[in-house]
Amino acid sequence: MSWKPGTLPETIAPENVGMSSDRLSLIDAYLQGYIDQEKLAGSSFAFMRRGELVYNKSFGHASQASGQAMSTDTLHRIYSMSKPITSVALLTLYEKGKFQLDDPLEKYLPEFRNMQVFTAGSAALPAVRHAAASITPRHLMTHTSGLTYGFKGVPHAVDQMYRHFKVGDEAEDLATLAGKIAKLPLLFDPGTSWNYSYSTDMQARLIEVLSGMTFDQYLQETLLDPLGMIDTCFTVPADKISRFSDNYARPKGPLKVFDEAASSPYLSEQALKSGGGGLVSTLPDYMRFGQMLANKGELEGVRILGRKTVEYATRNHLPDNKDMEAMGAGGFSESAFRGVGFCLLGSVCIDAVAAPNMQSEGDYGWGGAAGTRFWVDPTEELACVFMTQFMPGGRYPVQEYLRHLVLSAIVD
Known about the structure:
The protein has ten helices and 17 strands. The protein has 412 residues and is α+β, with helices and mostly antiparallel strands. The chain folds into two domains: 14-84 and 214-408, DD-peptidase/beta-lactamase superfamily (Beta-lactamase), CATH 3.40.710; 90-211, 3-Layer(aba) Sandwich (Beta-lactamase). It is globular, with a radius of gyration of 21 Å.
């Protein structure tokens, strides 16, 4: 198989890997339907089975105003699909013995010593107590750290504090972000519940401390360059702006531009290189990442992680093999909660019947706020990547039905 960075391999006949061409043709009508109904401006989808590219098609526009078509090499804001990339980068340091998953975080980031937990009161007058346990790298990697995001509209006092102190302000770097977060109380004792949060950005800060390099430098040298992910970056270069998609929303009626490519913040370098949501990427780049994981850590002779590391990391790491629902998960997430646990890279299906859509047990992956999604199905030897630019990404169940369509086309 010839696979040049920046492109995808040639597609093969689905029947060569036990799939039906007729059944896969349903994907075309499904994704085109979202364009025809003006729910999405454009999208791209590709998947590989047994290391061969089976499907690769694009629909609609990257920019409706200019008429620019969506294409395989269109640049997308992948937002939280940055998280699995960051976690894999951290795992490379785990393999080098730089830390253990259950080490106290303050061993490396001393600002997280003696953390407090919010118990009552308000954002202005909080009641707190000492946390029952230290945050650990495993807590960061499974979003059980007690941190939060401070999303607009979330009424909890701790989220209000995050908003008040402008946690995540783009003017700050990862070290400043960590110092600001460490001064605020936790939502709960580490390891006792699940909450989407800045945990992955704290993974990025941990990478800096453990490696002695800036996060973006370590990511480039350890993951992006070796894998040939030539279009994955924090800042869109001038010579690639023409491939950068507009991002859309649909508050009422027709689609409207949420973030125009020509004036996007992604065109300027930001101080905060967010491991939790700062990257842009393309379908071919992310497919290289996903196929590396499907191959148990290796792609085209380049090994990023050991086989055993990938197998271990992609198991459910929530305590007592709980799903996210049992961990009290609520609010925003890129995943369903029932029947779904959390591995060290993202969500992982632990009960296929309880989960809300058809998937294999052991299927893992994650998505982004603008509707992007990747998943790896080790049982069926699949690596799948879906790209679109629509806020909020969870408004339509596009990715869930794509899983159904892919799995139902398996005939061997």
